[in-house]
Amino acid sequence: RRLGKNPVYYGLQGTTQQHLGEHLSDIVETVLGDLDESKMIELNEETGEFGGLNLGFIGSNYYLAYSTVELIASSVTAKTKTRGILEIVSAASEFAVLNMRQGEERTLKILSRGLPYIGKDVVWNDPNSKALVLLQAYFDRKPMNPDLKLDCDLVVSAAVKIIQACVDVIATNYHLKAAVAAMEVSQQVVQGRWKKDDVLLQIPHFTDELVKKAKARGVNSPFDVLEVEDEVREDLLSDFGEDSVEMSEIAAFCNSFPSVEVGYEVVEADDVTTGDPFRVSVKLQRDADDDEEEEEEEEDGDEEKGVVVSKRFPAKKIEGYWVCLGDPKTDKLYAVKRCELRDEKKLNLDAFAPEEAGEYELKLYVISDSYQGVDQEFDVKIKVEEGEEESEEEED
């Protein structure tokens, strides 16, 4: 109805059914052409039939603009690291709508001082440059005015799904190290910390000085805060009152810090043949803290499990893990799956065996998308026998 009421605005030559039909057909053809060119779909120009491709499914899964997925696909390489991931994420089309307020260029320049990934040719009135500055300032925990804080919350919230899309796109190219780099950036975004920061700094109200004090007392992780002797913990946290909000937030984080037990096996390990599919079965079990279990029983399970504790992240998020099978020697990613983990999860990693027979030492990685310092890796040894077709060819 809008087309017919305002034809000039929409570029129509007339308002008849034929004019409307031709206009809509042109729009559809243009959109399909763009999607085909960006490898989101495969379009048969003769028949007009089309089908989704892997990049298209990734964009649809994360509700991302096709231009963002195209950007990711054209930018990631085997050598992509933290800087590359941050630059790709901040360049996403989703951030083109960020508001650029009058005089904000100067504020962004000041905010960018000391940040590691600010290029010399940065355009200060560009929304995507603003997104890059805000992400890094967020990791640095720099103070922001209320307007910038709102913008930063928008960027941080949206960055998670863009990073997840980065992992999926990288996985289509089988790059192990680049995929892990993207996963680690996800942890940075959720906790508001750089990768290089000590894991204790994720705990609310922990400062560099308090971390030094903790290290001197043998406290090296959030688990240790709970497990040390009472007098050691009381001395460490003596600046906070026993019933204070700060102490409550520290306890909430440490009690929620995940401990995940991992079990795995190569299915039919004696029957892995060259070039053929094989499967690794994985089980994840999140060990709830005893105090958490008691509280959950008292509340009849009303408290939702698996919700990430982070004072910095502006949105509710369920704890998730990437489970990957790869070969660090060749930088090959064989398989990856991401899952949310509230209690227990079973999943299968399906991959194709190497083309050459022999013994291979692969790695199974379990990487959090929300917490630093909880990632695990395990050795997975597989013995690959020559397939039947190859054996027959050799006999001939």
Automatic annotation (TrEMBL):
GO terms for cellular component: endoplasmic reticulum; membrane; spliceosomal complex. Its main location: endoplasmic reticulum. Residues 52-382 form the SEC63 domain. Residues 283-306 are annotated as: Disordered. It is found in: Endoplasmic reticulum; Membrane. Residues 288-303 have a biased composition (Acidic residues). GO terms for molecular function: RNA binding; RNA helicase activity. It comes from the Eukaryota. SUPFAM superfamilies: E set domains, Sec63 N-terminal domain-like. This is SEC63 domain-containing protein. It comes from Triparma retinervis.
